[in-house]
Write a structure and sequence with these properties.
Elements: H1 6-20, E1 38-48, H2 60-74, E2 79-90, H3 94-100, E3 123-128, E4 135-137, E5 145-148, H4 163-175, H5 199-211, H6 218-227, H7 233-240, H8 247-261
Parallel strand pairs: 1-2, 1-3, 3-5
Antiparallel strand pairs: 4-5
Helix pairs in contact: 2-4, 6-7, 7-8
The chain binds zinc ion (ZN).
Residues 170, 174, 180, 190 line the site of zinc ion.
């Protein structure tokens, strides 16, 4: 049977909230049908540099795990990100950034973005090693999201176990137009591991995600993955994690056959 419509399930959820407050584990309630998911491109930049603060210690494997964590949190809004690309690249203007020292502000992070890989066509997540805040999204822009590998948060009940996915998901929340809301368990609270979004936040983030030029429906994502042949994995990975069968089952099957085709190391 098809799952109950979004509106009625969300109605049920809202009614149950007083009982569940603080108990609801992050991302446990899938309230959108697979067809309603909005899939957004995310370019992940692992910055490398001679300047220690900009030299991110995360590996590509860490970044893939991070993306899975981000999607675990954003699932509640029916929004998922796929790795449009995952880049290890040299931070721009690192010498200048370092020389600013005490006069450096968050706005100077703009400078460190490698020029060749800037584009408004995708969301961007720049991973650095050490900045003053855990993360920052400048001007609510999808192009200006920065997170540090050394992020630390105050743990709250039912919150995200790991810090990096929560910080990244929070900053992407700003990129989707959300403001801070200082409720301990909320994703948009400052400095906690909370991951929840309320109905208003879900509606606003979906509205903005739906307006993003590079957004995909699951069907479009599947078509794009098929067109990419052996390079469709990043899309299949997101589709395979969607609720229900259908698209997800098809994506899992295709992902498995891609993995089977991949040449194994000979030594
Ligand atoms: Zn914030």
């Amino acid at each position: 049977m098809r799952s109950i419509s979004t509106i009625s399930r969300r109605g049920l959820l809202t009614a149950a909230l007083p009982l569940l407050a603080g108990l609801r584990p992050a991302g446990a309630d899938v309230i959108f049908t697979p067809e309603q998911f909005i899939i957004l491109p995310l370019r992940i930049h692992l910055l490398r540099s001679q300047v220690a603060d900009l030299n991110c210690s995360l590996t590509p494997a860490d970044a893939r795990k991070l993306l899975a964590g981000i999607n675990g949190i954003w699932r509640q809004a029916g929004i998922q990100f796929y790795a449009e690309s995952l880049l290890e690249e040299k931070a721009e203007a690192a010498g200048l950034y370092a020389s600013l020292e005490a006069s450096r502000t968050e706005a100077h992070l703009r400078l460190i973005r490698p020029r060749e890989t800037r584009t408004p066509a995708t969301f961007h997540l720049y991973l650095v090693q050490e900045i003053r805040p855990n993360g920052v999204c400048l001007e609510f822009s999808h192009e200006l999201v920065f997170v540090k590998a050394t992020a630390e948060l105050r743990r709250v009940e039912g919150g995200c176990r790991e810090f990096l996915p929560r910080v990244s998901a929070h900053e992407l929340g700003h990129a989707l137009g959300l403001e801070h809301r200082q409720d301990t368990f909320n994703l948009l609270a400052s400095g906690t591991t909370g991951t929840l979004l309320n109905e208003t936040e879900i509606d606003l983030s979906r509205l903005n995600a739906g307006k993003f030029a590079g957004r995909l429906t699951p069907q479009q994502a599947m078509q794009m993955a098929v067109n990419r042949g052996g390079n469709g994995s990043a899309l299949y990975e997101v589709l395979a994690a969607l609720p229900g069968g259908g698209v997800a089952a098809e994506a899992r099957k295709r992902l498995e056959s891609l993995r089977a085709m991949r040449p194994r190391p000979t030594s």
